[in-house]
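QA checklist item 7 of 12: single-chain prediction sanity check.
[x] sequence parsed
[x] length recorded as 315
[x] structure emitted
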Amino acid sequence: MTINRSALRRSTAQTLLKKIQEASVKKGESQGSDDRFWQPTVDSNGNGFAVIRFLPSKTEDTLPFVKTYSHGFKVGSKWFIEECPTTIGEKCPVCDANSELWNSGYENDKKTVRERKRRLRFVSNIMVIKDPKNPENEGKIFLFGYGQKIYDKLVTAMNPPEEYGEDPRDPFGFFDGCVVKLKIKNKDGYRNYDDTTVEPASDLYDGDEEKLMEVLEKMYDLSEFTDPKKFKSYEQLKTRFSQVLGEDAPAKQDNDEDDAPRSTGREYGAAARHKDETPPWDDEEKPKAKVDSKPKAAVEDDDDLAFFKSLAEDE
């Protein structure tokens, strides 16, 4: 089988950037113990380093990543840990409740929303280039879940500011691509990726078509993460949400304030229902995931559903 080099070049920096922009205006599984996923290992101080290379999409009509949302929060002794159907453009009872709470006029309600808001995660295929703690992973293909911070660095590589004096590069490309140097630090007790860099790289395997074909064959189909069958129905989620809150528990918290206006939430109800329409609370700075003395996973911006599942399992 002959590899189609021109097809592999399809995701140039500008073409890919255009696809991402187009996808952002269209309406539309947690990693858990899935050994297809890779994460960098951190030391006892919460610091770590690794080098990876993001890989292109398997087909011309798809992006080299999927964007997913989930909820992970605790009410009393009960956890609500579920994939958010806004990932696929469907309604979510938690997001609908958040819309109403956010517009209630009470600060306590906004605090509740911040605790229950959806968590963002991207998933891509990667090749591990350097993994000092686990060298047996080097050269292998994995899935990688990451947050907004790393995603923004990839987009910057595709569209660098003019003052940088850099040419746009496709960080997901086989040819003239990039490597990502993951630099994880324990900053004020939290895991931080600020020092991670996206740097130019030559053709993967020097453009050897046979080896590149082998990489394509080992890559995972990302469509499984947006398969509607993976998501619970609105009614199922609503039932579970009610159970976590308590059968007769209202969505709102009791407040000491009097006479403050309470909105029906209609203003932002639609925004909470579609992955391409960002609710106002999603624009706020996200809480960070504190580094455990025994790290369970590399969690960025508190966005990994598996992290919450691990917490629930510990109790």
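[x] summary fact logged: The longest strand covers residues 119-130.
[ ] second reviewer sign-off
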